[in-house]
Write a structure and sequence with these properties.
With about 130 residues, the protein is mainly β. The chain has two domains: about 10-50, no CATH class; about 65-130, no CATH class. The chain contains one helix and eleven strands. It has one helix at about 65-75, and strands spanning about 10-15, 20-25, 30, 35, 35-40, 45-50, 85-90, 100-105, 105-115, 120-125, 125-130. Strands 7-8-9-10-11 form a five-stranded mixed beta sheet. It is rod-shaped, with a radius of gyration of 30 Å.
Length: about 130
């Protein structure tokens, strides 16, 4: 595992549990030629040896803005919609996923999900809206 033989007092890099980063450590005890306990040279905390962690890749950035994704989703659903089968929106009605509704202000919409007992998320041409329902 190691190239050179380790001994108590040697310096080794490891993950510090207090600093929460890779730092230099001094070996305090050995267990079968491997570091057992180490002491961080930054915070002086003594803890079980943990090997250094690899650097994480930066999170991938979104290339498509959410509004544009909603517009694309709307355009994909539009050919399957039949406006004649849409029900007029009412706060007193109950809705199921994929139900077509006709809102007086936002126009034709598709229920995307039922959020709770009194809310649904509807995709309109303008974007997603949270609507109250029964």
């Amino acid at each position: 595992m190691q190239d050179a033989t380790l001994s108590v007092g040697d310096s080794i890099e490891g993950r510090c549990t207090k600093c929460r980063k890779n730092t230099a450590h001094i070996i305090v005890t050995l267990v079968e030629e491997n570091p057992g306990k180490v002491q961080c040279t930054v915070c002086n905390r003594e803890h079980k040896y943990r090997p250094p962690t690899a650097a994480r890749k930066p999170a991938a950035r979104r290339t498509v803005d959410p509004k544009e994704a909603e517009r694309q989703e709307w355009q994909a659903l539009q050919p399957t919609m039949n406006p004649a089968k849409a029900t007029d929106y009412s706060m007193d009605a109950t809705y199921k996923v994929n139900a077509l509704i006709n809102h007086p202000k936002f126009g034709l919409g598709v229920v995307q999900r039922v959020v709770g007992p009194q809310k649904v998320e509807v995709l309109f041409e303008d974007g997603r809206k949270m609507m109250r329902c029964q």
